[in-house]
From TrEMBL, chain A:
This is Thiosulfate oxidation carrier protein SoxY. NCBIfam families: SoxY_true_GGCGG. Gene3D superfamilies: SoxY domain (2.60.40.2470). Residues 50-151 form the Ig-like SoxY domain. The lineage of its organism: Bacteria, Pseudomonadati, Pseudomonadota, Betaproteobacteria, Burkholderiales. The gene is soxY. It comes from Noviherbaspirillum cavernae. Pfam families: SoxY.
UniProtKB/TrEMBL annotation, chain B:
It comes from Noviherbaspirillum cavernae. InterPro entries: Ig-like_fold (IPR013783), Ig_E-set (IPR014756), SoxZ (IPR030995), SoxZ_dom (IPR014880). This is Thiosulfate oxidation carrier complex protein SoxZ. The gene is soxZ. Residues 7-100 form the Sulphur oxidation protein SoxZ domain. SUPFAM superfamilies: E set domains. It comes from the Bacteria.
Length: 153, 103
């Protein structure tokens, strides 16, 4: 066993102890954990419910940007911006995908509420951005037409 | 194997724009190989970006993020020369951290 590995083991065990002792919240070590239930939700409603947004309102403060027509569903650029103050969470949901939730982001203070990424789309669908700002849930949508499916279709 | 990420961070005033290109298959678990067997899911689940040890973005991903994920975001309060570190962990427990310096 080399020295590095020994150190690593010691560090992880100390961290583990600190977590079990409640000294460090796991979210501080590795910001947010991946929630299987949310990502495995099969329908848009289930996914939104699993995120914890019981009530949400359509808002003009939130914008979903992407192409009107995506030629390749495997790589669809999507960006979400929120002008709502105190935006703390952004989720990208593709309504007709087998698992609608594509990605979610926790936005720490100081980070602008604007993220861009690329998603896969099984076919033409509405893409929704669900945003939590000031404790309220806001949503915006955009339909993206897909000419070639991204899930082997 | 985990391939290196490409991270670019540029400061305009005190706003830093970070672009990350990750090399990862992002296998959905729904595709089948030529013999008809399902290819097991293999995808990044969590990603954390830090600037000088302060978390600036914390992302969770599902299988529908595209292959070789791309991510861009902006944060305030960064300066040229700051260190940006991005770490991801996938569903098989693979992880990788790469760093870049704000230009």
């Amino acid at each position: 066993m080399n020295q590095n590995r020994r150190d690593m083991l010691r560090i992880t065990s100390v961290l583990g102890l600190a977590i079990t002792a409640g000294l460090i919240n796991p979210s501080e070590v590795f910001a947010a954990e991946w929630k299987a239930g949310v990502f495995e939700a099969k329908s848009l409603e289930d996914a939104i419910k699993a995120i914890g947004a019981d009530k949400f309102a359509v808002s003009k403060d939130v914008a979903v940007n992407g192409p009107d027509i995506a030629e390749n569903g495997a790589v669809v650029p999507v960006s979400v911006t929120s002008a709502a103050p105190n935006t703390e969470f952004i989720a990208i949901l593709v309504e007709k995908n087998p698992n609608p939730l594509s990605a979610s982001f926790n936005i720490p203070a100081g980070t602008e509420a604007a993220v861009s990424t690329r998603v896969k789309m099984g076919g033409t669908s509405n893409v929704h951005a669900l945003v939590k700002a000031d404790g309220k849930w806001l949503i915006a949508s955009k339909e993206i037409k897909v000419t070639l499916g991204g899930c082997g279709g | 194997m985990a391939n290196p990420m490409r991270i670019r961070a540029n400061a305009t005033g005190d706003v830093v724009e970070v672009k990350v290109l990750i090399r990862h298959d992002m296998e959905t678990g729904q595709r089948k190989d030529s013999s008809g067997k399902a290819i097991p899911a293999h995808f990044i689940q969590t990603l954390v970006a830090k600037c000088n040890d302060k978390v600036v973005l914390d992302a969770q991903m599902g299988t529908s993020v595209s292959k070789d994920p791309f991510l861009s975001f902006k944060f305030k309060g960064g300066n040229k020369g700051d260190k940006i570190a991005v770490t991801w962990v996938d569903n098989k427990g693979d992880t990788r951290t790469d760093e870049a310096v704000v230009a």
